[in-house]
């Protein structure tokens, strides 16, 4: 069902400082910050050869990651994102197997303008899982 690891998301208390570390210390290609109001976060993508790192920080106290940062004040791995070719089909298979899709169960548009869903961490060994629909023929080289 799942394809490539699309990104690893890390919640950070200071987005500019985290982005600078990846750019200046680790020498990675770091994109401009983007506000994702629907998800309550500001993100910076770090491009690596084989995947991406999504640095994210809360957009205000109502942000879904505000509580995570309260528990992990210095930041931490927040979720993994796997690519799937058919999100609706994946959600159906997983729900039938007893997994829990977060929210209203309907895909939202994620950070890359593609449909995404989140699966409850309790179903995946304590790890929040994001699924992003990427058609295999649209796979970037
Ligand atoms: Co993500």
Ordered list of secondary-structure elements with their pairings:
Layout: E1 5-11, H1 15-25, E2 29-30, E3 34-36, E4 41-47, E5 52-58, H2 66-71, E6 76-84, H3 87-96, E7 108-109, E8 115-119, E9 128-133
Parallel strand pairs: 1-5, 6-9
Antiparallel strand pairs: 1-6, 2-4, 3-4, 4-5, 7-8, 8-9
This protein binds cobalt (II) ion.
Distinct small-molecule ligands in the complex: cobalt (II) ion
Which class best fits the helix and strand makeup? Answer: alpha+beta
The DSSP helix count reads 3
Radius of gyration: 15 Å
User: How many beta strands in the DSSP annotation?
Assistant: 9
CATH class: Alpha Beta
The shape, in one word, is globular
Which range does the strand content fall in? 25-35%
The SSE string, one letter per element, is: EHEEEEHEHEEE
Fourth-tier CATH superfamily name? 2,3-Dihydroxybiphenyl 1,2-Dioxygenase, domain 1
Approximately how much helix is present in the residues? 10-25%
| Spans where pLDDT lies below 50 across 5 or more residues | none
* Number of structural units classed as domains: 1
Q: Would you tell me the overall average pLDDT?
A: 93
Q: Please, what is the oligomeric state?
A: single chain
CATH fold-level label = 2,3-Dihydroxybiphenyl 1,2-Dioxygenase, domain 1
How would you characterize the largest beta sheet?
9 strands, mixed
How would you characterize this protein structure?
The protein has 141 residues and is α+β, with helices and mostly antiparallel strands. The chain has one domain: Roll (2,3-Dihydroxybiphenyl 1,2-Dioxygenase, domain 1), CATH 3.10.180. Helices cover 19% and strands 34% of the residues. Strands 1, 2, 3, 4, 5, 6, 7, 8 and 9 form a nine-stranded mixed beta sheet that branches. It starts with a strand and ends in an 8-residue tail after the last strand. The mean pLDDT is 93. The structure holds cobalt (II) ion. The site of cobalt (II) ion (CO) has 7 residues, from strand 1 and strand 6.
